[in-house]
Every structure is written in C-alpha cells, then in structure tokens.
Amino acid sequence: MIPFTTLTAAAVPMDLPNIDTDRVIPARFLRKPREAGYQRFFFHDVRFNADGSENGDFILNQAPYREAKILVTAENFGCGSSREGAVWALMDHGIRCVVGPSFGDIFFENCFKNGVLALVLPGASAAAIRRQLQERPGATISVDLERQTLTAPDGALHRFEVDPFRKQALLRGQDEIALTMEYEQAILAHESRRAAEMPWLT
Amino acid sequence: MPTMFEKIWDRHVVAEGPGGQSLLYIDRHLLHEGATHAFARLGKAGRSVRRPAGLVATADHYVPTGPGSEARANDEIRGMVEGLQRSTREQGVTLFGPGDPRQGIVHIIGPEQGLTQPGIALVCGDSHTATHGAFGALAFGIGSTEVEHVLATQCLWQKKPKVMRIRVTGARPAGVTAKDVILAIIARIGAAGGVGHVIEYAGPAIAAMSMEERMTVCNMSIEAGARAGMIAPDATTFAYVEGRPYAPKGAQWDTALEYWKTLPSDPDAAFDREVELDAAGITPTVTWGTSPQDALPITGNVPDPARESDPARRRAVGRALDYMGLRPGMALTDIVVDRVFIGSCTNSRIEDLRAAAAVAKGRRAVVRAWVVPGSGLIKRAAEAEGLHEIFTAAGFEWREPGCSMCIGMNGDTAREHERVASTSNRNFEGRQGKGARTHLMSPAMAAAAAVTGRLTDVRTLSPSPP
Fold it and tell me: How many angstroms separate the CA of residue B456 from the nearest CA in chain A?
C-alpha cells in the first residue's frame, strides 16, 4: 500500500447526497482485471456519452477539476455495494483523499485498505468547502494526516478525527496481513478455546 | 446487561490491537465469483488459505439464468465463474458450482445449508451479508482486501460499531409483508441512518416473522446504512436450523442450543440509539426514486421537488425524478412498468415465490416478467409444489438460480429507460442496467404489477380466480 502523509492538490466538489458505489463504478466493470487499471470506469456512465465521448456537463470533465486529487462530497458517499472496485477506480483516476460528512461503512474501510484517506468533517464544514470550490474552480486543499488538519481554500484550518489504527496504517503504508500474522499465537489460542467451547463449529 | 451484539463480539475478539481496533475471529467466510481478485492477490503474495474448512463458495453473480444468456457467450463473464472453480479447487475450498443443486445466491444457500447459525461471526465480500444476522449472528459485508485478509488469517481488524435497536411494535395488517416493513424502516431513518451502527431489529412484529421474513428485513440493513442487522434467535430460529446439512447434530445440537439461548440482549441492555415503529401503520410500499429511502405507501403520490424547502433535497428529488422519468405529484399507481423481476437475495425464497404465485395464479402477465429462484433447492421445492406451472401458465418466465437482474453482472439487464418492478434491494441509477429505472417492492406487489402493467396495490386486486 502507498503511504499517505500530506497532500496539497486541487479538489472537486460533489453536492448530491447518497452517491452509491454502483454510480462510482457500474457492476459490469468489476470483472475487468485489476492490473489493466480502473481509471476509465470511475463514474463511467455519467462521465461518458454512449459513443464513448466525454460528457462535458459532468464536473470531472471540466478543466479546473480534471486534475483534482481530492474529492469533497455530501452525506453518505460510497453507500451501497461492498465493491472495492469503487476505490480502485477512484484512486486510479488520481484521487487520494475523499472528504465528507459521512461515508458508506464498507466504502470507508475499503479506502483505508488502499491508501486513500476518507476524511470526515461536520456537514456544515464540508458544505462550506464545496461552496468555495464551486466559487473558485481549481482551488486547492491541503491535508496533513500526522497533524490531522485540513486547510480549506479560504485558509481556514479544520481539525479532523481519524482512528489511530487507520492513521498509522496509512502513514506507514502497512501490509495488514503481515501485521495480523504477528498475532499467530493469539489466533491459535483462540482456535483451541473455540474448539473446546463450540465444538459444533467446523 | 450486554446487547446480543456485544455478547457475540466479545466471544470473537482474538486480541486488542494498536489504536483501538480489535482482531476478530471469523467462523464462516462465504465466497462468490468476486473473490477471484482476492485469490489472485493471495497467490501473488505466496500466501495460502489458513482454514479451508471455514469457507464455502458458490457461483451466483455471474451465472446464466436462462437460455441465450450473455453469461454463456461472454468470455469475461464465463472467466469469473471458471476463476472461482479454479481457485477453490487449488485451495481445497467447498464449492457449490454450476450444476450442483445446492448452487444459488450466497445469502440464500448459507441459511439453507445450515452454515448460518446463531452466535457466529460470518463475513462475505458482499454488502447483503447482513441477511445472515436474522439468525442472531454477527454478519457483515467486506471489501476485496478484507476478503484476502480473512483467507490468509481467518481474522479481521474491526472497530467496534455502535448498536441501534429498531423495535417494530404491533402487528402487520393483511397484505403487508416483511419487505414493506424494511422499506418503511429505511424511509424513516434514511439511507445513512444506520451508518457506523449494527441494527438489532426487535419487537412483536419482528418476533412474529418467519425466518424467511426476518432474512428479508436484515438483508436490507445496508440500505439503511448499517453494515450488519440482527434478530435475537428464538424457537423459530432453532426450528429452521435443526436438521440442515451443516447444523450441529446429536449431543452437539443440545450444547449449541444451550449456548444460543443465552444470546439475546439482556432486558436492561443499553443501546446507542433506539427507534420505534408501529407495524399497524405500514402499508404496501414501493420506491419512486434512486435511493432506497425514496419509499412511499402505494396509495401515495410522487413527491414534488418544488415543495421541498431544503435546496439540496430539492435538487436530489429533481434529479431522481428526471432519471426515473416521473411527473411530480402523479399517483404511484399511474406508473406504467415495462418489466418485472422476482428474485435476489432479498426475495427469492420459497415463501416469496408462493406469495408471487398466489397473485399470478389464474391471471396473465401483460409485461415481461421473470422469476429467478434463489437456489437450485428452492427451484426444486417450488416445482414440487407446482409453482412453476402457475408462473408459466400466467406468462412469467421460470429461470435458473442466481443474482440475475438485481445487479446484472451476468448480462441480465434492462434496457435504457425500461422501467422494472423489482423485488431486489437497490434502485440506484444504472443498477439494473445503464439507464434502467427500478421500483422496489414485495414479491406479491411485483406479481400484481406484472398482471396489471402498472404499480398496483395488491390489496385492490379481486380474489384470485380458482
């Protein structure tokens, strides 16, 4: 996993609440090999017209937002399906940080497993930042994970909370399986206790 | 005074990790074709499956459900099923593959085989894993990296969620199903209402439900934002589990039963949030928009964005109506449908098929209507009861088990602007095919839409002809 420490980049606002992972990546792309890259699938059906040309009305296709590495969303972004392809499409497109008041629980987890920071701010703060990004397209945001701060386009400093486990994993770009394997003795002990207490479970 | 969730959680903690996360032991890991990505990364890292006995796989998302299916012709789709067959063979994992009568939708076959039991921790790389919580299990959907993690370690790092109790009091009126109950709950708390929570459904209306109805309720917890939903195990649960292939037998059954009876939340258990709903106030419900929270009684009207005071809400409603091709204020019963889909992990069990058949019997579908049973065994059971004959006589198509049109990964999709009355769980934009329009409802309501060609209050249909 690629570590995440600090990021200063252009940000793109998305105002609609409840943007689901089916919209982020339609299901028919989930059978594509991961190695080939998922960038084209990101918001595919709203980003491209039927003939494959870009839909100029869609915000990701507008010049100041094309290079955005930060996405600022409304409530419940990434709700719905557990498809990790949603995060793969997002990161292959270049997004490394998603800001919003709340996220779909599984999407939230999937972000951290891939080195993407899902950053929770109060609804009013997220809305204010989206407004600034609409008023000044191409404006940048700075995120410092170690200090847990986000600097909005208007210069305001927002402190955010992040679970210490997820923070450390992101800062280090940790291989979680390797970490868990350090707990092998505890897992074995649990398994023998389980076999004694719940022998009916194979 | 712990809740049921806390009792099960505590029993599965292997270790407390750094930074407030717990390492949880996973009893059962169910797999489908989507696991192909995780198996590939596992192999690449030179790791193997830690406990193959804890896994059971089935092919559901990509299998064909009828003749001429794209799933047979498309190499990529076939490759997903073949990939699962290869990985499970190499790693020694049980697979209910194509041709096996036990094959079916992963959330149908777990309970059907007795793999789903009270008190266990169960995961699957699918957000509708909450279904299994109907047995008093802790069951939740995980992403692909987490699937790989469980394959390699049989464990998962988790932050302890909060617990919300939703009590459904009173009794359901005639014609109101479990699907209507869960749609009413989602409309009430919202699609983000359960974020960060596990939901425990309780109260007399839940206790009165069959296991199949409880599964329908828990299934859609994720549509309310909750990763897991659960219902206390009781005599209904135990009777359902007993005698199934993977259920405990003999003396072990007695030991298990004794343990399972200790699982319900203590009477004085404290919940982080409580919601109460009166079942008597619920009517047959349909969705009109592109979020499951956009649910209304069938007797109602499509909302008018102009009457929404919040500007963000006004935009969201306007966009949903635009996508759905609906006029503000029109009666829901004036919405004309093009297709009907009866199936999915929400509503493809035998009771669902019986309810749909009761409406279809002696009538005639006026639009294309599919019935996709949840598993090979359900298909057999339905055929033994003659349900397939009722459906085919009424002009419905009787198909092979799989996820089919709920998600369309196997090519079973609706065309752009086609309107589908569907018993599935998601009415998202593009869910049933690019530009397809989905209205969620119960199996009886979907069958009613099939025979009238429009959204219909099933209670207004005259009694079925003999």
Answer: 27
Mean pLDDT, chain B, whole residue set: 96
CATH code assigned to A6-174? 3.20.19.10
Both B338 and B392 in a single domain?
A: yes
Q: Do B195 and A176 touch (CB under 8 A)?
A: no
Q: Tell me whether strands B437-440 and B419-422 are parallel, antiparallel or unpaired.
A: parallel
Taking all residues of chain A, what is their mean pLDDT, rounded to a whole number?
96
pLDDT per residue over A115-166, tens digit each?
999 999 999 999 999 999 999 999 999 999 999 999 999 999 999 999 999 9
Q: Find, among A28, A56, A26, A66, the residue nearest to A43 by Cα.
A: A26
* Domains of chain B: total: 2
Burial code (b: 16+ CB inside 10 Å, e: under 16) for B432-461 equals: bbbbbbbbbbbbbbbbbbbbbebbbbbbeb
> Would the CB atoms of A82 and B434 count as touching at under 8 Å?
no
pLDDT digits (tens, 9 = 90+) for B278-323: 999 999 999 999 999 999 999 999 999 999 999 888 999 999 999 9
- Residue from the list A75, A109, A181 with its beta carbon closest to the beta carbon of B143: A109
Asked if B124 and B31 count as a contact pair (C-beta separation under 8 A), the reply is yes
Count of beta carbons in the 10 Å neighbourhood of residue A53: 9
Tell me what the mean pLDDT of segment A68-91 comes to.
98
ipTM, 2 decimals?
0.96
B399 pLDDT above the threshold of 80: yes
Nearest to B434 among A45, A103, A201 (CB): A45
Is residue B238 located within the same domain as residue B306? no
Q: What is the CATH number of the domain that holds B209?
A: 3.30.499.10
| Shared domain check, B380 and B311 | yes
Spatial separation of the C-alpha atoms in residues A166 and A112, rounded to whole Å: 7
Is B127 in Cβ contact with A80 (below 8 Å)? yes
Instruction: Find the domain containing B30 and state its range.
Output: 4-273
Residues in B 280-339 with any Cβ partner in A closer than 8 A: 291, 293, 312, 315-316, 319
Using the predicted structure, report yes or no on whether residue B466 has a pLDDT greater than 60: no
If pLDDT is split at 50, 70 and 90, which confidence band does B69 have?
A: confident
Give tens-digit pLDDT for B42-57: 999 999 999 999 999 9
pTM, rounded to two decimals? 0.97
* Tokens 């386009």 -> residue: A153
Q: Are residues B208 and B343 in the same domain?
A: no
Q: Which of A45, A102, A176 sits opposite B149 (nearest CB)?
A: A176
